[in-house]
Amino acid sequence: MKNLDGVNFHNIEGENVYIHTRSGKTYEGMVICKSHSTHVFDDARSRERDMFNEAILLDEDVSCAKDVYDLGIEHGDLISVEPRFKRTKSGFVKSRHIDDKAMVAAAIEVLRQLKEENLNWFKSQGQISDSSY
After folding, report:
1. Distance set, CA 115 to CA 6, 127, 128 (Å)
2. How far apart are CA 27 and CA 8, in angstroms?
3. Average pLDDT per consecutive 10 residues, the chain (133 residues; last block may be shorter)
4. In sequence order, what DSSP letters do the residues of the chain get, joined into one string?
5. What distance in Å separates the CA atoms of residue 113 and residue 119, rounded to the nearest whole number?
6. Whole-prediction pTM value?
7. Residue 4 burial by Cβ neighbours in a 10 Å radius (0-12, 13-18, 19+)
């Protein structure tokens, strides 16, 4: 497992994840530390939480690397963390990565307004001309 964008492994240990294969299949699993149990592993509390010490426990009947490859899962397939989205009774929204979701919502709203008002931001900035269409 390799970290692509600032994930803190302490924050995702024990979280459910989705493995997205290149063929379009999605499998589920869980992020675990390789020394996950304090009653079995002496270093369970002290072991570094990083890409070398974390693993994905697949929710599939696999027992070796070949079984995993036979599912179509390969090195480099993307893994996403279950967002745990929830809207509370009082109207609040809770979710993992909520700052990213807020940015996407803001971008969509800007694009909606540009379309609704028939505005072209690039044209108004002099970056494209009428002949570019």
Report:
1. 34, 18, 17
2. 22
3. 66 89 96 78 74 87 95 93 91 86 91 85 60 53
4. ---SS---HHHHTT-EEEEE-TTS-EEEEEEEETT--TTT-TTTTTS--STTTEEEEESS---SHHHHHHTT--TT-EEEE----EE-TTS-EE-TTHHHHHHHHHHHHHHHHHHHTT--HHHHTTSS-GGG-
5. 8
6. 0.67
7. exposed
Q: What angle do CA 28, 85, 30 make, to 5 degrees?
A: 25
Residue with tokens 């390969």: 74
Residue with tokens 């530390």: 33
